[in-house]
Fold this sequence. Notes:
By secondary structure, the protein is an alpha/beta fold. The protein is 35% helix and 21% strand. The protein has one domain (5-241): Rossmann fold, CATH 3.40.50. Strands 6-7-5-4-1-2-3-9-8 form a nine-stranded mixed beta sheet, sandwiched between helices. Helix 5 links the parallel strand 1 (58-62) and strand 2 (83-88).
Amino acid sequence: MPRNQESATDYINSLSSEVDPILAVISDNQSSWQKAMQLEKYEGKLVYILLEMIAAKNVLEIGMLNGYSTIWIANAVKKRDGIVYTIEKNQDYIDAFLKIAHTLSHNIKCIHGDAHEVLKDFTDPMDAIFIDADKNGYIEYFMHAKRLLKPGGILIVDNVFLYGNVYGASRKKVSQKSIAKMQKFNLLVSQDPDFQTVIIPTMEGLMVARNIKPLSKVYSHSCLIPENYGVLYEDNTTWRKKPNGKKR
């Protein structure tokens, strides 16, 4: 890791072109804390390249926030008429995002709800899964990723350094319990025999893991939205679980 990480980041960002003008719109209209939470431009470009390399078509995103990473992912899958299924529990974030991302509505499906609950209803395989949500939930999210990720698919996880706390160089105070959970997560994925894993030393730590488990069955992509989720918007861009749990 470069000694002056911020200077290195600025330099790499200056060389990384954005693939969609919507990305600049999101960056220009976000709060300072949202900017600190989202991917750097070069990280978004890296995610985009990784998804292109495996010809990803169906991607699950856990944690949308302002949608910056969602746009990178959607642009990576759209040439294959693919879809990014993004889970976000804050309805205000979804509403704000859909106002500026309408040109990619065919390639983005927003699912409103708590990811821990929503993921219980997911059964169809994904070509890739991107995680950038509540850090204490990463181990549970990985368990779902193991179930949902296709052989040859990739798992991408942001913020695995937990502000430097996992290796003793804290930039932000967090609880010892949270540090232990993230350290356990990193060890769990790195030692899983079904995955080839590396952590890229970005400012916040970006994990990339490839599922190397052999193909064991034929998958169907007939309906990737869980059946007990109803349409929230008339344009079919956002889904929310029906209160009575009935199938649509």
